[in-house]
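for the recovery benchmark. tokens below, seq after
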């Protein structure tokens, strides 16, 4: 942690958000608010969601943002890391999607690499393509 950039009060206001889930419907199913949950103080100010960016003060990662998002009652439960590669100017004059390597940690392990590739044909048109590998959630055995 010694190389983590120490954010200023202004950084905290610009780079981080936090909140608490409220009641509502998701896919037609009703959900109660955090403050209505059993054993939760109705006046609670405890955050149930946080998102932000942090920076590492080292030669290798200077200026590279690391983003995080965590919370309760999100649409999907899981842990993954997205590595978004630096955009470079296209020599073909078109704007390209960023190349992204996603490493899935749970509930199933795997990876996904989204990158720009040439479309089949005589023209040199680029289009996003994705290479995916995920372990089968039903294939559970003894893991070291």
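predicted aa per position
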């Amino acid at each position: 942690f010694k190389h983590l950039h120490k954010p200023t009060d202004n950084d905290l206001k610009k780079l981080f958000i936090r909140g608490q889930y409220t009641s509502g419907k998701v896919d037609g199913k009703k959900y109660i608010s955090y403050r209505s949950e059993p054993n939760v103080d109705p006046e609670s100010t405890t955050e149930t969601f946080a998102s932000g960016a942090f920076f590492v003060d080292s030669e290798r990662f200077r200026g590279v943002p690391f983003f995080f998002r965590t919370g309760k009652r999100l649409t999907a439960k899981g842990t993954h890391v997205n590595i978004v590669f630096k955009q470079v100017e296209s020599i073909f004059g078109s704007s390209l999607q960023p190349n992204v390597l996603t490493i899935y940690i749970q509930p199933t392990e795997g990876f996904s690499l989204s990158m720009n590739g040439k479309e089949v044909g005589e023209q040199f048109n680029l289009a996003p393509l994705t290479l995916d590998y995920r372990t089968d959630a039903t294939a559970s055995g003894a893991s070291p």
